[in-house]
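Explain this protein:
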Amino acid sequence: MKKHVKKSFLFIFFLALLVSCSLDAEYYDLKGMITKIDAPDTVQLNQKIYVNVTFNAGTDGCATAPYLNTSWIGNEIMVEGRYSYPKNAGVCPQYIPSATLSFSFVAEKIGEIILRANDESGIADTIQVVMP
């Protein structure tokens, strides 16, 4: 009796797993883990600042369209790496892709700007804005 119940449970679990994993799903918008934020240490007031952000852009080679979200909170810029998976991706190469993307902004106030990853990585960088 126990074997029959166990086999039935496994069959139902496997069937539920197949139904929940649809290849026809729409694009997924997922957050990648940031591994590096590269910015200058010191810039002058009103200077354009270029920042490079490296992050894990997926769990396999089918991940596409990496992009960055940034948001200001006081003197901090929260940075988030995003990626998606295409509909009907098919067979995907098994590697973790890495993306390096850039964004820029103008230093409008003297002081410290903190660039912080908006994920659990704890990655951060600091820029000092000084008078020209």
Remarks:
- Confidence is low (pLDDT under 50) at residues 15-26.
